[in-house]
Amino acid sequence: MLKPLTQLADDHTAVLADMFKLLGDPSRLKIVIALLDGPLSVGSIAERLSLSPSLVSHHLRLLRAARIASHERRGRQMLYSVHDHHIRCVIEDMVEHVTEGAD
Question: What b-and-e string marks burial along 1-38, b requiring 16 or more CB atoms within 10 Å of the CB?
Answer without folding.
Answer: eeeeeeeeeeeeeeeeeebeebbeeeebbbbbbbbeee
